[in-house]
Specification:
The mean pLDDT is 76. The chain is mainly α. Helices cover 45% and strands 0% of the residues.
């Protein structure tokens, strides 16, 4: 190993410099071609993120906005859920109520 370093010091220094440049953020990315960039832009404009798929949908057409649109949720416990969805659950039978009471301690269940 020492003989290789003594025989080729310039090559080792040049190789180290090239490796350091390619590892730096200033080096051109081999994977970020024009096509990849175009696909990322279209994906982001359709509601996705540039480097990930968001867990919640984003605003359609806003490619730089990657925050979700779930600030005003309409899930359980909201007036919207009680008015539109909450009443669709059928009332349980006597058997269901007895089962829930014995298993969970309440007639409505968990």
């Amino acid at each position: 190993m020492a003989a290789i370093i003594r025989q080729h010091p310039r090559k080792i220094v040049a190789g180290g410099a090239i490796a350091a440049f390619l590892a730096s953020p200033y080096a051109p990315s081999l994977f970020r071609t024009t096509g990849v960039s175009n696909i990322e832009d279209r994906w982001a404009a359709g509601g996705g993120g540039r480097n990930h798929t968001p867990g919640a949908g984003t605003k359609l057409g806003a490619r730089h906005e990657v925050t979700g649109n779930q600030l005003d949720h309409k899930g359980m416990g909201t007036p919207h859920h009680q008015e539109k969805i909450g009443e669709q659950k059928p009332e349980g039978s006597k058997f269901d109520k007895a089962w829930n009471k014995s298993m969970y301690g309440a007639e409505k269940g968990k």
